[in-house]
Amino acid sequence: MSIPGPVPRRRFLALGGGLAAAAALTACGSNTGRPSSGGASGGSSGGGPTLTQWYHQYGEDGVEDAVKRYAAAYDKAKIEVVWNVGDYEKAVGAALLTQKKPDVFEYGNGPTLDMISANQVLDLTEQISSAKDDFPASVLAPMTWKDKVWAVPQTIDMQMLYYRKSMLSKAGQQPPQTFDELISVAKAVATKSVGGFFAGNDSGFGVLANLMIWSAGAEQINSSNDGPGFVTSAVAAGLEQYRALKESGGLLGSASGDWSAPDPFVNGECAMMWNGLWNMPIFTSELKDDFGVIPFPKIGSGGRQAVPIGAFASCVTAQGTNPDAAKEFVRWLWVDNTADQLDFSTKYGFHIPARKSLVAKATNLTQGPAKDAVSFVEPLGHGPSQLWTPATSDAFLAAFSNVVLKGADAQKQLASAGETCTKEIKRLTS
Protein backbone atom coordinates (compact mmCIF):
# COMPACT_ATOMS: atom_id res chain seq x y z
CA MET A 1 0.00 0.00 0.00
CA SER A 2 1.29 3.45 -0.85
CA ILE A 3 0.06 6.24 1.37
CA PRO A 4 -0.83 9.40 -0.57
CA GLY A 5 -0.29 12.92 0.62
CA PRO A 6 2.13 15.83 0.47
CA VAL A 7 5.65 15.62 1.79
CA PRO A 8 5.42 17.03 5.34
CA ARG A 9 7.12 20.35 5.77
CA ARG A 10 9.52 19.24 8.47
CA ARG A 11 9.88 15.56 7.60
CA PHE A 12 13.53 15.94 6.76
CA LEU A 13 14.49 18.22 9.60
CA ALA A 14 16.93 15.81 11.18
CA LEU A 15 15.57 16.21 14.67
CA GLY A 16 18.36 15.71 17.08
CA GLY A 17 20.91 15.95 14.31
CA GLY A 18 19.94 19.40 13.13
CA LEU A 19 19.64 20.66 9.64
CA ALA A 20 23.01 20.45 7.98
CA ALA A 21 25.12 22.55 10.28
CA ALA A 22 27.59 23.27 7.55
CA ALA A 23 29.51 26.47 7.93
CA ALA A 24 27.55 29.31 6.42
CA LEU A 25 30.84 31.00 5.66
CA THR A 26 31.70 28.38 3.06
CA ALA A 27 28.57 29.02 1.01
CA CYS A 28 30.20 31.72 -1.10
CA GLY A 29 29.26 32.66 -4.63
CA SER A 30 27.33 35.15 -6.70
CA ASN A 31 24.00 33.53 -5.93
CA THR A 32 21.95 35.86 -3.75
CA GLY A 33 19.92 32.94 -2.44
CA ARG A 34 16.67 34.25 -3.91
CA PRO A 35 14.99 31.65 -6.13
CA SER A 36 15.33 32.40 -9.82
CA SER A 37 12.19 30.44 -10.53
CA GLY A 38 9.42 28.89 -8.48
CA GLY A 39 9.85 31.45 -5.72
CA ALA A 40 7.05 33.75 -4.67
CA SER A 41 6.78 36.93 -2.68
CA GLY A 42 3.93 38.53 -0.85
CA GLY A 43 3.18 40.29 2.39
CA SER A 44 1.73 43.27 4.13
CA SER A 45 0.79 46.67 2.84
CA GLY A 46 1.65 48.23 6.18
CA GLY A 47 3.68 51.39 6.63
CA GLY A 48 7.22 51.70 7.89
CA PRO A 49 10.28 49.94 6.46
CA THR A 50 10.14 47.10 3.97
CA LEU A 51 11.52 43.81 5.30
CA THR A 52 12.06 40.47 3.60
CA GLN A 53 11.14 37.27 5.40
CA TRP A 54 12.38 33.91 4.09
CA TYR A 55 10.79 30.48 4.42
CA HIS A 56 11.79 27.16 2.91
CA GLN A 57 9.25 25.41 0.70
CA TYR A 58 6.76 23.62 2.94
CA GLY A 59 5.07 20.47 1.70
CA GLU A 60 1.63 20.88 3.23
CA ASP A 61 -1.11 22.74 1.44
CA GLY A 62 -1.90 26.19 2.73
CA VAL A 63 1.33 27.05 4.50
CA GLU A 64 2.51 29.64 1.99
CA ASP A 65 -0.84 31.44 2.02
CA ALA A 66 -0.87 31.34 5.80
CA VAL A 67 2.54 32.94 6.34
CA LYS A 68 1.70 35.65 3.81
CA ARG A 69 -1.53 36.28 5.66
CA TYR A 70 0.36 36.67 8.94
CA ALA A 71 2.76 39.12 7.31
CA ALA A 72 -0.07 41.14 5.77
CA ALA A 73 -1.60 41.69 9.20
CA TYR A 74 1.50 43.47 10.50
CA ASP A 75 1.09 47.25 10.34
CA LYS A 76 4.49 48.54 11.46
CA ALA A 77 6.41 47.41 8.39
CA LYS A 78 5.83 46.04 4.93
CA ILE A 79 6.80 42.37 5.01
CA GLU A 80 7.75 40.72 1.73
CA VAL A 81 7.57 36.96 2.15
CA VAL A 82 10.02 35.00 -0.03
CA TRP A 83 9.14 31.35 -0.58
CA ASN A 84 12.36 29.49 -1.36
CA VAL A 85 12.32 26.42 -3.57
CA GLY A 86 15.34 24.14 -3.66
CA ASP A 87 18.35 23.87 -1.36
CA TYR A 88 17.23 26.30 1.30
CA GLU A 89 20.20 25.99 3.66
CA LYS A 90 22.64 26.66 0.83
CA ALA A 91 20.56 29.64 -0.30
CA VAL A 92 20.57 31.16 3.18
CA GLY A 93 24.30 30.62 3.62
CA ALA A 94 25.02 32.31 0.30
CA ALA A 95 22.62 35.19 0.86
CA LEU A 96 24.12 36.07 4.24
CA LEU A 97 27.36 36.86 2.44
CA THR A 98 25.77 39.29 -0.01
CA GLN A 99 24.15 42.71 0.13
CA LYS A 100 20.75 41.18 -0.54
CA LYS A 101 20.29 39.43 2.78
CA PRO A 102 16.89 38.42 4.10
CA ASP A 103 15.93 40.51 7.11
CA VAL A 104 14.21 37.58 8.80
CA PHE A 105 14.72 33.93 7.95
CA GLU A 106 13.82 30.57 9.41
CA TYR A 107 16.44 27.93 10.07
CA GLY A 108 16.34 24.43 11.54
CA ASN A 109 17.02 24.53 15.29
CA GLY A 110 18.22 28.11 15.01
CA PRO A 111 21.33 29.56 13.37
CA THR A 112 24.59 27.66 13.22
CA LEU A 113 27.48 28.61 15.49
CA ASP A 114 29.32 29.79 12.40
CA MET A 115 26.53 32.29 11.74
CA ILE A 116 26.66 33.48 15.33
CA SER A 117 30.46 33.72 15.43
CA ALA A 118 30.53 35.64 12.15
CA ASN A 119 28.02 38.17 13.51
CA GLN A 120 25.55 37.29 10.79
CA VAL A 121 22.57 37.02 13.16
CA LEU A 122 21.27 38.99 16.11
CA ASP A 123 20.70 38.02 19.71
CA LEU A 124 16.93 37.72 20.33
CA THR A 125 17.06 37.22 24.08
CA GLU A 126 15.17 40.43 24.77
CA GLN A 127 12.50 39.68 22.19
CA ILE A 128 11.72 36.28 23.69
CA SER A 129 12.17 37.25 27.34
CA SER A 130 8.49 37.78 28.17
CA ALA A 131 7.63 34.23 27.09
CA LYS A 132 10.91 32.37 27.48
CA ASP A 133 9.61 30.08 30.21
CA ASP A 134 6.67 29.15 28.00
CA PHE A 135 8.98 27.46 25.48
CA PRO A 136 10.29 24.00 26.43
CA ALA A 137 13.89 24.27 27.60
CA SER A 138 14.79 21.29 25.40
CA VAL A 139 13.60 23.21 22.32
CA LEU A 140 15.43 26.43 23.22
CA ALA A 141 18.70 24.68 24.06
CA PRO A 142 19.95 24.31 20.45
CA MET A 143 19.15 27.99 19.86
CA THR A 144 21.07 29.20 22.91
CA TRP A 145 24.75 30.05 22.97
CA LYS A 146 26.60 31.71 25.85
CA ASP A 147 23.31 32.36 27.64
CA LYS A 148 21.85 34.24 24.68
CA VAL A 149 18.89 33.07 22.60
CA TRP A 150 19.51 33.44 18.86
CA ALA A 151 16.17 32.39 17.40
CA VAL A 152 12.49 32.04 18.30
CA PRO A 153 10.94 28.58 17.79
CA GLN A 154 8.02 28.51 15.37
CA THR A 155 6.68 24.98 15.96
CA ILE A 156 7.94 21.62 17.22
CA ASP A 157 8.39 18.27 15.50
CA MET A 158 9.59 15.05 17.05
CA GLN A 159 10.22 11.36 16.48
CA MET A 160 9.29 8.36 18.58
CA LEU A 161 8.82 4.61 18.53
CA TYR A 162 5.43 3.38 17.25
CA TYR A 163 4.21 -0.13 18.07
CA ARG A 164 1.26 -2.24 16.93
CA LYS A 165 -0.70 -3.25 20.01
CA SER A 166 -2.21 -6.34 18.42
CA MET A 167 1.12 -7.69 17.18
CA LEU A 168 2.83 -7.30 20.55
CA SER A 169 -0.17 -8.75 22.36
CA LYS A 170 -0.28 -11.80 20.09
CA ALA A 171 3.36 -12.50 20.94
CA GLY A 172 2.73 -11.93 24.65
CA GLN A 173 4.96 -8.86 24.74
CA GLN A 174 4.79 -5.41 26.32
CA PRO A 175 6.20 -2.18 24.82
CA PRO A 176 9.94 -2.15 25.58
CA GLN A 177 11.27 0.25 28.19
CA THR A 178 14.94 -0.73 27.92
CA PHE A 179 17.15 -1.57 24.97
CA ASP A 180 17.51 -5.14 26.22
CA GLU A 181 13.73 -5.38 26.12
CA LEU A 182 13.65 -3.89 22.61
CA ILE A 183 15.93 -6.67 21.39
CA SER A 184 13.82 -9.31 23.14
CA VAL A 185 10.48 -7.94 21.93
CA ALA A 186 11.69 -7.41 18.35
CA LYS A 187 12.90 -11.00 18.16
CA ALA A 188 9.71 -12.36 19.73
CA VAL A 189 7.31 -10.59 17.37
CA ALA A 190 9.31 -11.10 14.16
CA THR A 191 7.99 -13.67 11.70
CA LYS A 192 8.84 -14.64 8.14
CA SER A 193 6.56 -11.88 6.88
CA VAL A 194 6.76 -9.27 9.65
CA GLY A 195 9.85 -7.53 10.99
CA GLY A 196 10.27 -6.84 14.67
CA PHE A 197 11.66 -3.29 14.54
CA PHE A 198 12.28 -0.98 11.58
CA ALA A 199 14.19 2.31 11.62
CA GLY A 200 15.12 2.85 8.00
CA ASN A 201 16.49 1.13 4.95
CA ASP A 202 20.01 1.80 6.22
CA SER A 203 19.22 -0.38 9.26
CA GLY A 204 18.54 2.72 11.31
CA PHE A 205 22.05 4.14 11.46
CA GLY A 206 21.19 7.60 10.19
CA VAL A 207 18.14 8.37 12.26
CA LEU A 208 19.10 6.58 15.49
CA ALA A 209 22.74 7.63 15.86
CA ASN A 210 22.08 10.43 18.34
CA LEU A 211 19.61 8.26 20.27
CA MET A 212 22.45 5.86 20.99
CA ILE A 213 24.16 8.73 22.82
CA TRP A 214 21.23 10.27 24.65
CA SER A 215 19.57 6.99 25.66
CA ALA A 216 22.86 5.79 27.15
CA GLY A 217 22.79 8.79 29.49
CA ALA A 218 25.48 10.70 27.62
CA GLU A 219 25.55 13.97 25.66
CA GLN A 220 26.91 14.87 22.26
CA ILE A 221 29.37 17.36 23.77
CA ASN A 222 30.82 17.36 27.28
CA SER A 223 29.72 19.86 29.93
CA SER A 224 32.85 21.98 29.42
CA ASN A 225 32.14 22.34 25.70
CA ASP A 226 35.70 21.35 24.86
CA GLY A 227 35.37 17.71 23.83
CA PRO A 228 33.02 14.84 23.08
CA GLY A 229 30.46 13.67 25.58
CA PHE A 230 29.85 10.36 23.82
CA VAL A 231 33.14 8.56 24.43
CA THR A 232 31.80 6.50 27.32
CA SER A 233 31.55 2.82 28.17
CA ALA A 234 27.76 3.13 28.24
CA VAL A 235 27.58 4.40 24.66
CA ALA A 236 30.05 1.72 23.57
CA ALA A 237 27.86 -0.93 25.20
CA GLY A 238 24.84 0.51 23.43
CA LEU A 239 26.48 0.20 20.01
CA GLU A 240 27.35 -3.38 20.80
CA GLN A 241 23.75 -4.01 21.82
CA TYR A 242 22.59 -2.61 18.50
CA ARG A 243 24.84 -5.13 16.79
CA ALA A 244 23.12 -7.81 18.87
CA LEU A 245 19.74 -6.47 17.74
CA LYS A 246 20.76 -6.74 14.09
CA GLU A 247 22.17 -10.22 14.56
CA SER A 248 19.06 -11.37 16.45
CA GLY A 249 16.86 -11.25 13.35
CA GLY A 250 14.53 -8.77 15.01
CA LEU A 251 15.71 -5.76 13.00
CA LEU A 252 14.01 -5.28 9.64
CA GLY A 253 16.71 -4.06 7.26
CA SER A 254 14.55 -2.81 4.41
CA ALA A 255 10.91 -2.04 3.72
CA SER A 256 8.59 -0.47 1.15
CA GLY A 257 9.39 3.01 2.45
CA ASP A 258 12.10 4.60 4.56
CA TRP A 259 11.80 5.43 8.25
CA SER A 260 10.04 8.77 7.61
CA ALA A 261 7.27 7.23 5.50
CA PRO A 262 4.07 5.73 6.95
CA ASP A 263 3.87 2.76 4.56
CA PRO A 264 5.91 0.07 6.40
CA PHE A 265 3.93 0.52 9.61
CA VAL A 266 0.51 0.82 7.97
CA ASN A 267 1.19 -2.15 5.68
CA GLY A 268 2.05 -4.37 8.63
CA GLU A 269 5.63 -4.90 7.52
CA CYS A 270 6.87 -4.40 11.09
CA ALA A 271 5.50 -4.54 14.61
CA MET A 272 7.55 -1.57 15.80
CA MET A 273 8.83 1.37 13.80
CA TRP A 274 10.79 4.55 14.41
CA ASN A 275 8.86 7.41 12.82
CA GLY A 276 7.74 11.00 13.24
CA LEU A 277 4.79 12.83 14.71
CA TRP A 278 3.81 13.99 11.22
CA ASN A 279 2.45 10.55 10.26
CA MET A 280 0.21 10.12 13.31
CA PRO A 281 -2.98 11.26 11.48
CA ILE A 282 -2.36 8.59 8.84
CA PHE A 283 -1.74 5.92 11.45
CA THR A 284 -4.90 6.94 13.29
CA SER A 285 -6.95 6.82 10.11
CA GLU A 286 -5.60 3.47 8.96
CA LEU A 287 -5.00 1.63 12.24
CA LYS A 288 -7.58 3.26 14.54
CA ASP A 289 -6.50 2.50 18.12
CA ASP A 290 -4.21 -0.41 17.24
CA PHE A 291 -1.00 1.49 17.93
CA GLY A 292 0.80 3.26 20.70
CA VAL A 293 3.94 5.36 21.09
CA ILE A 294 6.91 5.27 23.44
CA PRO A 295 10.26 7.07 23.68
CA PHE A 296 13.43 5.35 22.57
CA PRO A 297 14.24 2.83 25.33
CA LYS A 298 17.02 3.53 27.80
CA ILE A 299 20.38 1.88 27.31
CA GLY A 300 22.07 0.35 30.35
CA SER A 301 21.48 0.94 34.02
CA GLY A 302 22.47 4.60 33.79
CA GLY A 303 20.49 5.31 30.67
CA ARG A 304 17.27 7.22 30.08
CA GLN A 305 14.39 7.20 27.66
CA ALA A 306 14.75 9.88 24.99
CA VAL A 307 13.15 11.47 21.96
CA PRO A 308 14.75 13.82 19.43
CA ILE A 309 12.97 17.11 18.91
CA GLY A 310 13.53 20.00 16.55
CA ALA A 311 12.01 23.25 15.42
CA PHE A 312 12.39 25.62 12.55
CA ALA A 313 13.03 28.95 14.21
CA SER A 314 12.94 32.59 13.21
CA CYS A 315 16.29 34.40 13.00
CA VAL A 316 17.15 38.07 12.35
CA THR A 317 20.02 39.08 10.08
CA ALA A 318 22.53 41.37 11.75
CA GLN A 319 23.15 43.58 8.72
CA GLY A 320 19.73 43.64 7.14
CA THR A 321 17.61 46.59 6.02
CA ASN A 322 16.43 47.55 9.49
CA PRO A 323 17.51 45.09 12.21
CA ASP A 324 15.50 46.74 14.98
CA ALA A 325 12.32 46.63 12.92
CA ALA A 326 13.04 43.00 12.02
CA LYS A 327 13.43 42.07 15.67
CA GLU A 328 10.13 43.72 16.52
CA PHE A 329 8.38 41.84 13.73
CA VAL A 330 9.74 38.51 15.01
CA ARG A 331 8.56 39.42 18.51
CA TRP A 332 5.11 40.29 17.19
CA LEU A 333 4.70 37.11 15.13
CA TRP A 334 6.40 34.40 17.15
CA VAL A 335 6.08 35.72 20.72
CA ASP A 336 3.02 37.97 20.96
CA ASN A 337 0.79 36.59 18.21
CA THR A 338 -0.34 33.33 19.80
CA ALA A 339 -3.37 32.93 17.50
CA ASP A 340 -1.20 32.67 14.41
CA GLN A 341 1.32 30.47 16.23
CA LEU A 342 -1.47 28.02 17.02
CA ASP A 343 -2.74 28.22 13.45
CA PHE A 344 0.74 27.53 12.04
CA SER A 345 1.18 24.40 14.15
CA THR A 346 -2.25 22.83 13.87
CA LYS A 347 -3.87 23.73 10.56
CA TYR A 348 -1.16 22.59 8.13
CA GLY A 349 0.11 19.17 9.02
CA PHE A 350 0.48 17.67 12.48
CA HIS A 351 2.87 19.52 14.77
CA ILE A 352 3.20 20.71 18.36
CA PRO A 353 2.91 24.43 19.18
CA ALA A 354 6.22 25.83 20.37
CA ARG A 355 4.52 27.47 23.35
CA LYS A 356 3.55 25.18 26.22
CA SER A 357 0.50 27.30 26.99
CA LEU A 358 -0.86 26.68 23.48
CA VAL A 359 -0.67 22.90 23.58
CA ALA A 360 -3.92 22.61 25.54
CA LYS A 361 -5.64 24.62 22.80
CA ALA A 362 -4.45 22.20 20.12
CA THR A 363 -7.40 19.84 20.37
CA ASN A 364 -5.78 17.25 18.11
CA LEU A 365 -3.07 16.76 20.72
CA THR A 366 -5.22 16.23 23.80
CA GLN A 367 -5.90 12.51 23.67
CA GLY A 368 -4.51 9.12 22.69
CA PRO A 369 -1.00 8.63 21.28
CA ALA A 370 -0.78 12.33 20.36
CA LYS A 371 -1.17 13.30 24.01
CA ASP A 372 1.47 10.74 24.96
CA ALA A 373 3.84 12.17 22.35
CA VAL A 374 3.44 15.70 23.70
CA SER A 375 4.23 14.46 27.21
CA PHE A 376 7.65 13.25 26.00
CA VAL A 377 8.87 16.68 24.80
CA GLU A 378 9.69 18.49 28.01
CA PRO A 379 11.27 15.74 30.15
CA LEU A 380 12.76 13.51 27.45
CA GLY A 381 13.44 15.77 24.47
CA HIS A 382 16.90 16.42 23.06
CA GLY A 383 18.09 18.68 20.28
CA PRO A 384 21.51 19.06 18.67
CA SER A 385 24.35 20.92 20.36
CA GLN A 386 25.63 24.05 18.63
CA LEU A 387 29.00 22.28 18.57
CA TRP A 388 27.71 19.15 16.83
CA THR A 389 28.93 19.69 13.28
CA PRO A 390 28.45 17.59 10.13
CA ALA A 391 32.04 16.35 10.43
CA THR A 392 31.47 15.16 13.98
CA SER A 393 28.13 13.64 13.06
CA ASP A 394 29.70 11.76 10.15
CA ALA A 395 32.52 10.49 12.36
CA PHE A 396 30.09 9.17 14.97
CA LEU A 397 27.90 7.59 12.30
CA ALA A 398 30.94 5.83 10.86
CA ALA A 399 31.81 4.51 14.31
CA PHE A 400 28.25 3.29 14.83
CA SER A 401 28.08 1.44 11.51
CA ASN A 402 31.60 0.00 11.87
CA VAL A 403 30.69 -1.54 15.21
CA VAL A 404 27.40 -2.99 13.99
CA LEU A 405 28.33 -4.06 10.47
CA LYS A 406 32.03 -4.88 10.80
CA GLY A 407 32.30 -5.98 14.41
CA ALA A 408 34.80 -3.22 15.16
CA ASP A 409 35.82 -2.44 18.75
CA ALA A 410 33.26 0.05 20.03
CA GLN A 411 35.50 1.93 22.43
CA LYS A 412 38.24 2.41 19.81
CA GLN A 413 35.71 3.58 17.25
CA LEU A 414 34.26 6.12 19.67
CA ALA A 415 37.72 7.37 20.59
CA SER A 416 38.47 7.99 16.92
CA ALA A 417 35.20 9.88 16.44
CA GLY A 418 35.97 11.82 19.60
CA GLU A 419 39.21 13.09 18.09
CA THR A 420 37.27 14.51 15.15
CA CYS A 421 34.81 16.10 17.58
CA THR A 422 37.59 17.79 19.56
CA LYS A 423 39.14 19.19 16.37
CA GLU A 424 35.79 20.55 15.27
CA ILE A 425 35.20 22.24 18.62
CA LYS A 426 38.61 23.90 18.44
CA ARG A 427 37.84 25.09 14.91
CA LEU A 428 34.55 26.62 16.03
CA THR A 429 35.73 28.20 19.25
CA SER A 430 39.29 29.33 18.53
UniProtKB/TrEMBL annotation:
<protein>
    <submittedName>
        <fullName>Multiple sugar transport system substrate-binding protein</fullName>
    </submittedName>
</protein>
<dbReference type="InterPro" id="IPR006311">
    <property type="entry name" value="TAT_signal"/>
</dbReference>
<dbReference type="GO" id="GO:1901982">
    <property type="term" value="F:maltose binding"/>
</dbReference>
<keyword id="KW-0762">Sugar transport</keyword>
<dbReference type="GO" id="GO:0042956">
    <property type="term" value="P:maltodextrin transmembrane transport"/>
</dbReference>
<keyword id="KW-0732">Signal</keyword>
<dbReference type="GO" id="GO:0015768">
    <property type="term" value="P:maltose transport"/>
</dbReference>
<comment type="similarity">
    <text>Belongs to the bacterial solute-binding protein 1 family.</text>
</comment>
<keyword id="KW-0813">Transport</keyword>
<dbReference type="GO" id="GO:0055052">
    <property type="term" value="C:ATP-binding cassette (ABC) transporter complex, substrate-binding subunit-containing"/>
</dbReference>
